[in-house]
Specification:
Largest sheet: 3 strands, antiparallel
CATH architecture: 2-Layer Sandwich
Structural class: alpha+beta
Low-confidence stretches: none
Distance between the termini: 14 Å
Shape: globular
Oligomer: single chain
Number of strands: 5
Number of domains: 1
CATH topology: Nucleotidyltransferase, domain 5
């Protein structure tokens, strides 16, 4: 996940692995839930969370209760989104998601420990 300002400047990023997930939608929802914790770092700012997973976005923005197998996670994201205040969730095409995609591939291919890694203010070399 990557955080940028209104000029596309780097604010921070986070990389990690999700274990025991069964579908790409699981991963997208878990990443969104993580992303919804980012706005707390910048209170008062309007934040837009972007994802290339249109189906996940539709599920989270749907006002009805989700009774699917992932319903609890979807409802959790809805609650966090309402609590976040000045946060929107919108679709971004995969082509503009290159940095987040690169972090995900690095996390999956590295032999690093399973711990999450965050960078703030100064981007890591793999993002530059």
């Amino acid at each position: 996940m990557v955080a940028r300002d209104h000029n596309e400047g780097f604010l921070g990023c986070k990389m990690g692995r999700f274990r025991w997930v069964s579908t790409p939608l699981d991963v997208e929802l878990l990443a969104l839930r993580e992303g919804l914790s980012f706005p707390a770092k910048w209170p008062g700012l309007r934040i837009c969370l972007e994802s290339d997973a249109q189906g996940m976005i539709n599920s989270v923005l749907n006002r009805g209760v989700d009774l699917s197998p992932l319903g609890c996670l979807i409802e959790d994201c809805k609650v966090l989104l309402r609590a976040a205040g000045l946060v929107c969730v919108q679709h971004a095409f995969r082509e503009v998601n290159g940095v987040a995609d690169g972090l995900a591939h690095y996390a999956l291919s590295s032999h690093a420990p399973d711990a999450e890694i965050e960078w703030w203010d100064c981007p890591p070399y793999l993002v530059l």
